[in-house]
Amino acid sequence: MASTQLAVVGGGPGGYAAAFLAADLGLSTTLIDNEINPGGVCVYRGCIPSKALLHVAKVLDEARHAAAWGVEFAEPKIDLAKLRQFKDGVVQRLTSGTGQLVKHRKVHYIQGLAEIVDPHTLKVKTAGGEETIAFEHAILATGSIPAMPRTLTVDDPRVMDSTAALDLPDVPASLLVVGGGYIGLELGSVYATLGSAVTVVEMTAGLLPGADRDLVDVLAKRVNRQMKAVLLNTSVAGLKAERQGIRVTFEGDGAKQKDQLFDRVLVSVGRRPNSRIPGLDSTRVKVDERGFIVVDEQLRTDEPSMFAIGDVVGEPMLAHKASHQGRVAVEVIAGENVAFHPRAIPAVVFTDPEIAWAGLTETQAKEAGRKIVVAKFPWGASGRAITLDRTDGLTKLILDQATEQILGVGLVGPGAGELIAEGVLAIEMGANATDLKLSIHPHPTLTETMMESAEVFFGQATHVYRPRR
Ligand code: NAD
User: Which of 182, 186, 233 to mutate to test the pocket of ligand 1 (most atoms within 8 A of CB)?
Assistant: First the structure.
């Protein structure tokens, strides 16, 4: 029987970051995943392929908009096979890279499905048979899978989850997106740009329920133009596969619409943790009522040899949170006195405009009754935004009223996903409004909107005139 100091189950951005750091720290490490190379949902059928498609969609939108700048292109001809090839090539390139890194670091990589035998033994079913591994510690990084409520489960390929939608089987004339969250808006906008008439149904009163409304409002304006319809306070009561399409009945505000026929349906109503690991019940690892593995701030489960990280331990289900937790868990295993204590985990929705936030949102601050000041800088006053013809953006800081410390940052606009990193650093470093105001930002860039938001806080923004009251 082979033995290893650390076994990592699941090769997504959480699992492979953990395995690579463990190897760098000198631990003998085994990484187990069902794919040929590490990457997980994020790289194979999530973050990465969707971003490749969103990039193409952005180019199409910009090309169409260029008429307003005096440059006209003919209507694009879309070669779906080639577009798929581009997207698959992106995935191939990244995963062959992680495969190389496995070899360089001498991580023992096993392609197969892991089963827990006891708190120090794993069995892996591989194409060639079975391998048994004795381990000192294990990290469970098994991620999550799309949630498919029973009412939305139809055995018909025209009803898709995000994985099926990313395969781009065709560009349906009509597409229903169930769920106005991250996936629904990202993939819905790709299909809309490619030419589908997209209807979005969202159960709650607004898109992206976790984000501040002033940010979402900016995106919603564009989404409303881009999509055929956005039905809020609406859910789907039933789906029925018919020869002509999928017949959908709505419930809630959108129920006024009689049932409708769609060529395809994308179900994106959230993800659920993948904690059904065979043999887990033979350990002391606890799973809560929502299916999340219970861990402490050092990512330890109730079984002393086992740790868990990423989507399988809770929200937010984001790749960068998983990677960070993976590194913390490995450091704990290596004997360091560290814990997972972030002040800010950034969230980015890669629509156009992008929405990004980090730290405390305004809504959370108000709900918690915290004394805050919100300083907003509208992109209409940003030279860079004007040159991009994108003045619809907004940058805002959520500051502690007493200390002027930056508690949260919210952004909407093209490139918000890149800009938020400065906000994360500011929050993590405990920066206050003065720190941000005194940091010289390059001109003309969208990053200046961060600095000028701090100036707004002091009522002294160069490009925003606020007369003294
Ligand atoms: P989500 O939680 O972002 O959104 C689901 C939406 O569906 C919510 O707005 C919810 O109110 C709505 N909903 C739930 N049940 C419904 C119903 N029956 N009818 C209508 N609406 C309903 O989930 P998602 O979009 O499926 O994405 C899953 C997770 O994947 C995200 O939470 C995120 O963690 C991750 N993800 C992240 C990114 C990113 O970082 N850019 C992109 C895609 C996915």
Answer: 182
Distance CA 110, CA 125 (A): 9
Q: Is there a domain that residue 319 lies in?
A: yes
Tens of pLDDT, residue by residue over 250-289, are 999 988 877 699 999 999 999 999 999 999 999 999 999 9
* SS3 (DSSP) at 67: helix
The tens digit of pLDDT for each residue in 291-314 reads: 999 999 999 999 999 999 999 999
Range of the domain at 210: 150-269
- The CA 67 to ligand 1 mean position distance, Å, reads 34
Same domain, 158 and 129: no
CA 441 to each of CA 354, 376, 437, 446, 448: distance values in angstroms, whole numbers, following the listed order: 21, 17, 9, 9, 6
Residues 130 and 256 in one domain: no
User: Atom 3, ligand 1: which residue's CA is nearest?
Assistant: 181
Q: Which helix (H) or strand (E) holds 362?
A: helix 362-367
Q: How far apart are CA 224 and CA 198, in angstroms?
A: 10
Rounded Cα–Cα distance for residues 266 and 83 (Å) = 20
| Burial of 76 from C-beta contacts in 10 A (0-12 / 13-18 / 19+) | middle
108 is an active site residue: no
pLDDT digits (tens, 9 = 90+) for 421-441: 999 999 999 999 999 999 999
Domain end residue (candidates: 283, 309, 333):
333
* Catalytic-role residue among 65, 120, 443, 463: 443
Instruction: Tell which of 221, 245, 269 closes a domain.
Output: 269
Ligand 1 centroid to Cα of residue 280, in Å, is: 27
Atom 34 of ligand 1, nearest CA residue: 317
- Domain shared by 239 and 259, yes or no: yes
